[in-house]
Structures are given as C-alpha cells and as structure tokens.
C-alpha cells in the first residue's frame, strides 16, 4: 500500500471534514516553519523528494525510512511561500497520491502544491484564514541556474595529422536556466509557464581537427567572447532572445474543463494496454476539453471524456476518448484519433489517417485485473484487413505481494498505427507474449522472472523466427529483518531464439547471454556517511546467427562498475569505470580503448545568502558515465545496475566544473 501524506492548499477542505491532521508541522518562530513530508511504501528501496525549493534534483534530498516503512523528509520554509514537489520512488517520478492540491507539471503530470500560510492557519485552528490562504496561493516562481566549464582533451591521435598524446582540444562555457512560473491566476484557473532564459554554449577554445597549429577558435577569440558577455549577458549566453519553452493554462470548472498547451509542454495521455494517446510535445499547440467534476460521477456510473483539438505533427487533428466506469467493476474506453497533414483546416487531403480503439478493464476480484483492447487504423487509401488491426489481452494477479503474475498477448498488423500514440506498443508485424512473475515468500526476499516471446508472422509459425528472452531476478531486503538498512539486487538476461531458415522448416535454436547486473545499497551507516551504493553490470554484444557454427558470434563484452557515496553536509561522490573487451568473431568490435573511468563530486554549500549553491566537479578518461555533464551517474533505462553510456567518451577526456543555484 502506498500513501503520500502532506498538508497543502486543498487539504484544508479534508481537514474540516475529517478533523484530523496528516502532516507534522512545527512553527519555530514568527517567520520559520518546519515541515515533515511523509510517504508510506515499505517495499521501496529508495525515496527522494524533489521540488522547486531544491532545483528538482532527483538525488540530492533522500527521505529516511523508519521501522514502520514510512519515509520522511524535514525542511525549513518561510511564511508566504508556496512549495511544488514530487516524490522519486526507486527512480520513478510520482505525484504524491495524498496531495490534496496539485498543479500541472508541464509534462502531462501533476506536482504536489503546499501553501505554507494555509498550513500555519490550519494548525492554529483558523479554518477561514486557512481556506483564504490556500485560495490566494497565487503564482510561484522557481528556477535553477547552471553554469559550468567543459574542457576536452584527446587521449589518442587526432583524426588527421601528427598531433598525438594527451592534447587539449576545446573549452566551452555552458549555461542552462529555465524559469518557471506556476500557480493560480484566477478562480479554478492554473498557469504553468516555463521560459527558456539561458541555454547555450560559448566556445572559448577549439583546436584544429587537422592537427595544424592554428586553432579553429583561439584563446584570443575566447577572451573576446568572454569580454563581450557583460554588454549583453542574456543573448550572449543564450545565443538568442529568451523564449517560451512550455506553456500550460488549465481551467477546472464544475461542468467543463479546458486546457491549452504549447511548445514542449505535453498533452494528456491515455492508455488501456496500448498508448493510444502518448504524452508528446505540443509543438504548435492544442486545446483539450473535458467534463467537469459534477459530470464525472452519475450515480453508479463514472465518466471521463476528452476532446483534444491539436496542431501537432504539422497539421490539424483530433484525439478523443470516453471512459465509462460501471460501479468500480469495469471501465470501457473508446478512442478516436484523426490527423491531416494539410495546413488548412477544412482541406483534409487524401493522406489523412484515422485510428479507432476500444478497451475494457475489469476487476472481477480484488486480486485480479483483466484488460483487452482492439485497434483499427484506416485512411482513404488503406485496406481494411488484418494488417490494419491490432489487439491485446492482459491479466494481472496480485496476492498482496506474496505472489504476482502478469500475462500480456499482443498482435499487431504491419500497417496498424495510433497517430498520436506509441506505435511501438502495437508490436507492428509481430505476435508477442510476455509473462512476468514474482514472489515474496518472506519480507527479506523477493524473486521473479520476466519471459518474452515474439514472432514476425503468426501465420507462418513453422518457418518464421521465434525471439525469446528470460530475465530472472532476485532482491534481498535485510532492513526488514535486521537493524541494518542493506539491500541487494541481481538479475540476468538470456535470449533463446528459434532462427528462421527459408529452406529448412526444422529451424535451429540458439541462445545468447546478453546481460547481468548486481547492486548493493547500504544506507544510514553513520551521521557522516549516509549511504553507499555499489553497481556492477555485464553486457554482451553478438553478431548475426552463424549457421555453420550454429551459434551467435560474440562481438564484444562490456563490464561496468560504479560506486555512489552520500556524505553529510550535502557532499556526494560518484566513481564509475568501463572495461571493453573484443569478442571472438571476425566482425568483432576492435576496442582501441579497453578501459575508461569517471569520477565526480558535488557539494551543497552553506551560503544561504546565495540560495545555497551546489558546486559540481567531474573528470572522465575514455568514458563518460555522467548524466548531462553533471556529476550524477546515468544508468540504463531497464536496470539501475548497468551504466547507460558504454561506448561514449572513448578517445576523450573531460574536465567539468561548475555551480548550480536554485531559487
């Protein structure tokens, strides 16, 4: 069970009804307030809080877990302040499910919202003042300003010429700052506006790639560019006049809701099994029209309706859905998407496309969820056959965490599409089965396996390829049984394929081990040493199936190791290394750079008059494991045990240092 608890603006209404207080708020003085955020999830291995008060950093503010499985975080606030926040649970951004007040985050989701004066008034028992403070939260401004120096060195010969050795190659001044204004602009109307204030790179020095003595950008050129910045700081650092990066304006009425989105802000998404409508950049803008709260519950029937008018994808289109819920037992969702590439609204040409879908989600038992979805795509010149269709079935069983199982079956035609959704979810031209199982027989141990099988042509199963993988994993949670906050996780992935042979119906079966990983995390070690996380990842690359050898030839092997250390006073250190090995096949990757590493550190200063800037420093050699140039390590999307960038940075060395301010 997950439960987010935090007093914020609209919590006032709940408190009036329930008469209880969910968050611990201590008033220390006339100007200072101490707020304790809490989040309940005993199964999570890590929970962080991120918000406008700390630059939305997903790693800098971990929450602490007590014996009851409740995570807490304590912060200081000021009267008149409005706080926006989210939780980061095992790397996933989550809107506090218990936040009674939320605002659009500009990405199709919601941020929790806390109005400090409303909290103070409510604790004092003044319900009218609390409600007034919550309603007058107004607009909240936040920004994170980053500036750093990127200095590149070459660790091998330049592409052409005779320059060799550890050579200084370039130096750039990088700035990044997006200013966010969010909050209430009128009754039931919320604004989320993000300005691209500073986002650019200024070259201070760049060597000549041909190895000559005359650089592309000399130190004199770089000094000239630095000296010119005070004459026009914004345009010099940004490269252009500041512009709107995201824009969302939302009206939530009793009977009608309106939302207009533009630039890189996201539209609202919708999915049953398929992402028929995916959160994408709004580009030229869109308007969403929804039913209000007074029309969302009609007796035993719930209703969620959306009409989206959009100029996305360089033309006009619609994405619409209606979801009808029947007594919390079943939801039926009907989608219809249409798009024309024409730039004139009433001149739909012959290239316009349509996609219609119907999905059903049912919960016949508390432990069982069943889903099904069918999609048909069509246009003026499309043939309505099996290639234009997609279908999926899904079943999920959850025995209170002791045993969980999920089964998904998908069929996608070659020409099936969603227009505004994720066509990858359709498994176009493929029949696909996925089975996920996990069991947690005791508190300290969890194990599971993911199984996946796909085939290109279901009608020709005898001769078509079958691609399968098995991914077993196991987790140990020693904190649940011992006074030691230690977790260990491990996994492996094995591909077993039935290889297609046009002249042989008895297809060969071949296997290849593709990856494995291990992570050990120890938290709450001491007051100074907060945490240590060790990661190991192993990856194998294979070539095409060799029929003569009856195997997949091994092209390369990558080993990655990483250590993340959290210390007191906002100090952290990260170290990572990559070992690259060549395989045995003739086409194997010839690794000229077999070893690379990176080391980074960040320090949150105590300069409160400067809004507590964070100093950041990292150095790399023949590998770049860091995320966006910061000192935070970047891991793969699928698993936290393997570094994401296995080949990047080879032949280079980087020295980066900078500062980050949050306001």
UniProtKB/TrEMBL annotation:
- Which stretch is the leader sequence? 1-23
InterPro entries on file: AMPK1_CBM (IPR032640), CRP1_MDG1_kinase (IPR050827), Ig-like_fold (IPR013783), Ig_E-set (IPR014756)
Q: Where is the AMP-activated protein kinase glycogen-binding domain?
A: 35-110
Name the residues that span the membrane: none
Gene3D superfamilies hit by this protein: Immunoglobulins
What keywords are assigned to this protein?
Signal
Q: Which family does it belong to?
A: Belongs to the 5'-AMP-activated protein kinase beta subunit family.
Name of the protein in its database record: Amylopullulanase
């Amino acid at each position: 069970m997950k439960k987010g608890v935090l007093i914020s603006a609209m919590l006032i209404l709940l408190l009036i009804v329930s008469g209880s207080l969910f968050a611990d708020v201590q008033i220390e003085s006339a100007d200072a307030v101490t707020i304790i955020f809490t989040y309940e999830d005993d199964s999570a291995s890590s929970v962080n809080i991120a918000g406008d008060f700390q630059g939305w950093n997903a790693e800098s503010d971990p929450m602490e877990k007590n014996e009851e499985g409740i995570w807490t975080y304590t912060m200081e606030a000021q009267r008149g302040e409005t706080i926006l926040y989210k939780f980061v649970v095992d790397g996933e951004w989550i809107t506090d499910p218990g936040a009674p007040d939320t605002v659009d985050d500009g990405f199709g989701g919601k941020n929790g919202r806390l109005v400090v004066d409303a909290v103070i008034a409510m604790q004092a028992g003044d319900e009218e003042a609390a409600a007034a403070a919550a309603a007058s939260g107004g607009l909240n401004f936040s920004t994170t300003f980053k500036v750093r120096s990127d200095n590149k060195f070459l660790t091998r010969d330049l592409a052409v010429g005779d320059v060799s050795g550890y050579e200084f190659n370039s130096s750039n001044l990088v700035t990044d700052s997006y200013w966010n204004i969010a909050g209430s602009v009128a009754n039931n109307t919320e604004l989320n506006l993000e300005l691209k204030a500073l986002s650019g790179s200024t070259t201070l020095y760049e060597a000549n790639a041909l190895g000559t003595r005359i650089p592309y950008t000399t130190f004199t050129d770089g000094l000239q560019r630095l000296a010119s910045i005070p004459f026009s700081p914004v345009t010099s650092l940004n490269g252009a006049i500041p512009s709107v990066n995201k824009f969302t304006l939302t009206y939530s009425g009793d009977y009608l809701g309106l939302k207009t989105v533009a630039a890189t802000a996201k539209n609202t998404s919708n999915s049953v099994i398929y992402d028929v409508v995916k959160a994408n950049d709004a580009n030229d803008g869109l308007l969403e029209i929804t039913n209000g709260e007074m029309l969302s519950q009609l007796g035993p029937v719930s209703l969620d309706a959306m009409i989206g008018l959009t100029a996305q994808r360089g033309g006009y289109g619609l994405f619409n859905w209606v979801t009808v819920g029947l007594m919390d037992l079943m939801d039926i969702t009907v989608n219809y998407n249409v798009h024309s590439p024409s730039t004139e609204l009433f001149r739909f040409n012959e290239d316009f496309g349509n996609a219609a879908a119907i999905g059903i989600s049912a919960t016949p038992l508390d432990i069982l969820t069943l889903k099904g979805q069918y999609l048909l795509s069509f246009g003026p010149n499309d043939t309505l056959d099996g290639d234009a269709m997609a279908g999926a079935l899904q079943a999920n069983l959850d025995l209170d965490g002791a045993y969980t199982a999920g089964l998904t079956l998908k069929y996608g035609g070659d020409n099936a599409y969603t227009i505004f959704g994720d066509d990858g979810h359709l498994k176009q031209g493929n029949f696909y089965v996925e089975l996920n199982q996990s069991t947690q027989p005791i508190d300290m141990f969890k194990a599971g396996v993911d199984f996946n099988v796909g085939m290109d042509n279901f009608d020709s199963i005898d001769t078509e390829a079958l691609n399968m993988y098995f991914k077993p994993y196991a987790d140990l949670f020693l904190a649940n049984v011992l006074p030691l906050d230690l977790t260990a996780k491990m996994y492996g992935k094995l591909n077993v394929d039935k290889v297609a042979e046009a002249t042989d119906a008895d297809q060969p079966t071949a296997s290849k081990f593709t990856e494995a990983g291990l992570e050990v995390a120890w938290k709450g070690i001491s007051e100074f040493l907060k945490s240590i996380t060790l990661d190991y990842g192993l990856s194998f690359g294979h070539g095409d199936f060799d029929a003569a050898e009856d195997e997949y030839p091994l092209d390369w092997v990558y080993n990655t190791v990483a250590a993340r250390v959290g210390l007191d006073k906002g100090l952290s250190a990260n170290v990572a290394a990559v070992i690259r090995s060549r395989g045995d096949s003739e086409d194997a990757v010839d690794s000229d750079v077999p070893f690379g590493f990176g080391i980074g550190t960040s320090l949150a200063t105590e300069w409160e008059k400067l809004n507590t800037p964070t100093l950041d420093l990292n150095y790399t050699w023949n590998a770049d494991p860091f995320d966006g140039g910061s000192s935070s390590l970047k891991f793969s999307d699928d698993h936290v045990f393997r570094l994401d960038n296995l080949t990047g940075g080879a032949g280079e060395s980087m020295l980066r240092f900078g500062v980050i301010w949050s306001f």
